[in-house]
Amino acid sequence: MTTYALRKASPASTRADAVVVGVLPTDSGPRLHPAGDAVGEAWGRRLQPLLATLGVTGEAGEVHQVPTAGTITSPLLVLVGLGSADAPSKGGRKRRGSLPTSVGHDAVRRAAGVAARSIPNAASVALALPADEPALVRAVLEGWILGGYTFDRYRSEAKASDRRPGEVVILTDGARRKETVVAFEEAELLAGAVAAARDWVNTPAGDLTPPQFVEALTEAHGTLTKGRGAPKVGLRVIEEDELAELGCGGILGVGKGSAAPPRLVELTYEPKGATRHLALVGKGITFDSGGLSIKPAASMATMKLDMAGAAAVTHATFAIAALGLPVRVSTFVPLAENMVSGTSTRPGDVLTMYRGKTVEVSNTDAEGRLILGDALGRAVEAGPDAIVDVATLTGAMVMALGERVTGVLGTDDVVQQVLDAAGAAGEASWGMPIPEEMTDRVRSSKIADLAQADGVRWGGGLFAAAFLREFTDGLPWAHLDIAGPSFNTGDAWGHVTAGGTGTAVATLVDLARAYAE
Asked: By percentage, how much of the chain surpasses pLDDT 70?
């Protein structure tokens, strides 16, 4: 197991097996970031020719390993690109989003992630990256932990975790300052929450059906709340019979085609002194075949990811409680497996949702909004100041924003709060509209209150958000469509590894932090 520490020391004289230093691209060539000045002084005039020989540019994602041959105490120097200097986001109005582009916190987080995958067989590592303020310390530690994340539960050979450094030290002049220590400790906790969400998303769907998801959640809850001084988080599991009594027709309608019955989990965190109340809702489709509107085979390959919203809100809630943030949180996790069988919901069926609204189903592959509708109704009754739902909801949002950006829709003020939190967390997000005509489209069914889908190809992500809004009872609300950034099907980049990303966990924690303040 790796241990993490803060230390005030020179990167040129630290006795770690490897030292990581950031490089900036400039008009006159690559330069070491000032956090690594001592290393540059040790190399002297030999440094620039060395960087030129290695082809170092300082661009983001670049990494070079340099044997030091005694020039500094550590035997290995790792140079990692920090990317271009600060540049303003080109997004227009502030509310439209946060696309990380600067050499600040986001660049540091990504550089630390690249470094974590680039150091072989080192027992100890010292990180001489920008860390002269608490937020940068947070970025360095989160980047390192998440960039080095692996999911090897199903591998028979030696685990990658066995080859990780035993000690990782962040070098900073503020090592003994209280605010730096607090940021460091909170970053380690938050990175652990993101990694736990990644674990759930990466678990094969056959091993994480709704009942098995509840088992995993209950186990994590027990670990969190065990022992003197542990946070108190209420847990309620609603099974299929009680779901029927409550009238949760959306959850039951989606889940009835599966041999694994649906569930609804409700978490409550009510710390003393809390004056604000936040409700979180996360989509938990543990596998999505598309139901009778079946997906193409290739589209099912990664559908274990369809519970990423549920994983995010669960681990965000646990992190909020572990941090002791003075904000009340009510969390709702609807769980179902969308499968094909003789009992599956049919296109054309009408479902009666929690609190009585009826929905005409026309596409059983648009199932997420149905389980969220029930859960949003439960969230409304909790009486929060705001509701935030997180869901891998639409391919249309991926078409609009790509695979790395979350779409945020809803009430203007809550959307802006989410965008601000995402910016602090280093998670790319962008505000999207819900045009007026979407309301008419959602209410266009000729036999029910609402149309689950209307067959119009355009604006599917906006339609889905308008549908969810029908269940919020006019409360302040934001919807995070994480269909793109929840799962990385390509190679690792920055601090984001292949597979489940754990996106939205950090955003929700920073949102709760803002509410607590």
From this structure: 95
Domains of the chain: 3-176 (3.40.220.10), 203-487 (3.40.630.10)
What distance lies between CA 231 and its chain's CA centroid? 22
Contact (CB, 8 A) for 460 and 395 = yes
**Structure confidence by residue, pLDDT tens digits, 310-329:** 999 999 999 999 999 999 99
Rounded-to-integer distance, Cα 84 and Cα 99, Å = 15
Q: Are 368 and 281 in contact (CB under 8 A)?
A: no
pLDDT of residue 90: 33
Query: Looking at the whole model, is its pTM more than 0.90?
Result: yes
Catalytic choice (256, 295, 355, 443): 295
> Which tokens hold the place of 245?
């009594």
Contacts 24+ apart (CB under 8 A), 217-225: 217/265, 217/314, 217/333, 220/196, 220/314, 220/315, 220/318, 221/267, 221/318, 224/318, 224/321, 224/322
- Cβ atoms of 32 and 23 closer than 8 Å: yes
| Count of CA atoms in the C-beta half-sphere (13 A) of 458 | 2
Measured over the CA atoms of residue 258, residue 261, residue 262 and residue 267, the dihedral's sign is negative
d(CA 431, CA 410): 9
The DSSP H or E segment spanning 170 is strand 167-171
Within 8 A by CB and 6+ apart from 316, the residues are 193, 280, 504, 505, 508, 509, 512
Dmax (CA) for the chain in angstroms is 79
| Residue whose tokens read 């941090």 | 323
Residue 509 phi, psi dihedral angles, 5° rounding: -65, -45
**Nearest-angstrom CA–CA distance, 460 and 23:** 43
Contacts 24+ apart (CB under 8 A), 216-222: 217/265, 217/314, 217/333, 220/196, 220/314, 220/315, 220/318, 221/267, 221/318
Residue 279 DSSP class: E
HSE-up of residue 478 (Cα within 13 Å, Cβ side): 29
- Closest by CA to 169, choosing from 323, 33, 10, is 10
Which of these is catalytic: 110, 138, 369, 441? Answer: 369
Distance CA 256, CA 245 (A): 15
163-218 tens-digit pLDDT: 789 999 999 999 999 999 999 999 999 999 999 999 999 999 999 999 999 999 99
- Specify the 3-state DSSP secondary structure of 238: strand
Q: What value, to the nearest 5°, has the Cα angle with vertex 286 and ends 283 and 288? A: 95
Catalytic status, residue 295: yes
Our answer to whether residue 469 is catalytic in this structure is no
DSSP of 403-437, one letter per residue? Answer: SS-EEEEESHHHHHHHHHHHHHHT--EEE----HH
